[in-house]
Design goal:
Residues 1-65 are annotated as: Disordered. Residues 66-230 form the Flavodoxin-like domain. The protein is an alpha/beta fold. The protein has one domain (64-241): Flavodoxin domain (Rossmann fold, 3-Layer(aba) Sandwich). The protein is 29% helix and 13% strand. It contains seven helices and six strands. Strands 1, 2, 3, 4, 5 and 6 form a six-stranded parallel beta sheet that branches. Strand 1 (66-70), helix 2 and strand 2 (94-98) form a beta-alpha-beta unit. The protein is globular and about 55 Å long. The chain binds flavin mononucleotide. The site of flavin mononucleotide has 22 residues, from helix 2, helix 3 and strand 4.
């Protein structure tokens, strides 16, 4: 369950009516009641009709929900995030949002975080400024999508006060051996672990060419990976396969 003020949620109404009732325990630490047990008690995460908090009268145990937060300067990581969401959404409610729009998370079952690799790691203000200058070069055929040079996943995670939940990390990086490229996903995972989040599936990289254009097969691969995330999330939410520490 995700308490995310101001979240836009593209997932289907069907899913919205089947969540928030009995939060799964697999990603939660004991000792604190699940804040999302009563949707009306919290800021609603999705309410397309504008009528207030989401509620459900569904009698069965609902599954967990997933939130994807991505950073993208030229659009590749955004496309990957959207494809991952498509794969997850086949079975599991999911929200996807740019880090620029993402509020601090207060409670969420599984958080998927993705970012482009800059200087072997997560972007910084200087690398985002450099990215903007790349986009001014017509020979590169890049369009700058970073709507804020001030905010990236690095800064967002450092503000993120969300222990107790599961995480999945991904990045985009150049199609070369990782030892030469580095990986933003590794940096994301390291930071989220420090915040006491737990890995749900191993991190993944999606590849761009040397001009930062996403390789064609990566969208399908991201969609398949999204399905795998949904399966792992569902399995982890079952008591017999709980990921509780
Ligand atoms: C300033 C800058 C530094 C970069 N450094 C790296 C790097 O160290 N390793 C790498 O694999 N890619 C690097 N890249 C390429 C990015 O990974 C690539 O632009 C990104 O994956 C595209 O994703 P986006 O369209 O979501 O921004 C760099 C890009 C920029 C702009």
């Amino acid at each position: 369950m995700c308490d995310i003020a101001g979240t836009t949620s593209p997932h289907k109404e069907h899913h919205e009516r089947h969540q928030f009732r009995h939060p799964p325990t697999a990603f939660r630490r004991s000792g604190r009641p699940a804040a999302s047990a009563h949707a009306a008690d919290r800021p609603h995460r999705s309410d397309p009709g504008g009528g207030g908090a989401v509620t459900t009268d569904h009698p069965q145990e609902p599954g967990p929900t997933v939130t994807i937060v991505f950073e993208s300067l030229f659009g590749s990581t955004r496309q990957v995030a959207e494809a991952i969401a498509d794969g997850i959404r086949e079975t599991t409610p999911v929200s996807v949002m740019s880090v620029v729009d993402a509020p601090a998370l207060t409670d969420c079952d599984v958080l998927v975080v993705g970012a482009p690799t800059h200087a072997h790691s997560l972007s910084r203000p200087a690398s985002r400024t450099e990215a903007e200058s790349w986009a001014r070069d017509p020979a590169k055929h890049l369009r700058f999508e970073g709507d804020s040079r001030a905010t990236g996943v690095r800064e967002w995670i450092d503000r993120c006060p969300s222990p107790r939940i599961g995480y999945v990390a991904f990045d985009t990086r150049v199609d070369m051996p990782r030892i030469f490229t580095g990986s933003a996903a590794s940096a994301i995972a390291k930071r989220l672990r420090k915040h006491d989040l737990r890995e749900v599936v191993p991190s993944e990289s999606f590849l761009v060419d040397k001009d930062s254009h996403l390789l064609p097969a990566e969208i399908d691969r991201a969609r398949r990976w999204g399905r795998a995330i949904a399966s792992a999330v569902a399995a982890s939410a079952r008591p017999e396969t709980s990921m509780k520490r």
